[in-house]
Amino acid sequence: MLCGIDEAGRGPIAGPLSVAGVIFINEVKELNDSKKLSEKKREELFPKIKENCHYHIVFKSAKEIDQKGISTCLKESIIEIMNTLKNKCDGNIDFLMDGNTSFGINTLQHKIKADATIKEVSAASILAKVSRDRYMNEIAPNYKEYDFDKHKGYGTKSHVEAIKKYGRSDEHRVSFRLKALGEEKIGVQKNLF
Predict the structure, then answer these.
(1) Calpha distance 43→99 (Å, rounded)
(2) Cβ contacts of residue 56 below 8 Å, gap of 6+?
(3) Domain layout of the chain by residue ranges
(4) Could you tell me which InterPro entries the record lists for this protein (predicted)?
(5) N or C, which terminus of the chain has less Cβ within 10 Å?
């Protein structure tokens, strides 16, 4: 039994990190890396994936990312997914994360571009991305000046301009420094792997 794990939101300057794990019960077709699918296709696949698998999705807020660092938040999310899905499923589970590190977790395998080649990781990629995008769309009306629904918290030119004009909101990651604002890095993040 394979559990695919992937994240969305590692790089944005606002909004949460979203990490998902998926173990299929029934097959779902037309899967791919979420970044290679249109928003419409991701939304279409989202309920199909949820109906045909055991899954768990973890969110880490901008505040948690600032306090703990992105690597710690990722590691905690992965461990929560592993523990939750072990309790839901009988039998041995192999855990596979998209990317080039296992975050110091002995029972976690990793593979670069697994989100494009392993269906469980593709599905996790879609669950993580759609969940995070929906969150950013949901909060956008409360933060109209930032247009979160358009860029989902990534550091686009218009987003950086809005930060220059209005400062950061409580959804922004203060620890993510912006060269465009003349900010220096505030210490090197601890490497967990």
Answers:
(1) 24
(2) 20, 21, 80, 81, 84, 85, 88
(3) 2-140
(4) RNase_HII, RNase_HII/HIII, RNase_HII/HIII_dom, RNaseH-like_sf, RNaseH_sf
(5) C
Its pTM surpasses 0.85? yes
Q: State which H helix or E strand residue 5 sits in.
A: strand 2-8
Please count the other Cβ atoms lying within 10 Å of the Cβ belonging to residue 13: 22
pLDDT of residue 188 exceeding 80:
no
- pLDDT one-digit tens code per residue, 35-76: 999 999 999 999 999 999 999 999 999 999 999 999 999 999
State yes or no: 170 annotated in a binding site: no
- How far, in Å, CA of 152 to CA of 30, rounded? 24
43 is in an annotated binding site: no
> Topology of domain 2-140, per CATH?
Nucleotidyltransferase; domain 5 (3.30.420)
7 annotated among ligand-binding-site residues: yes
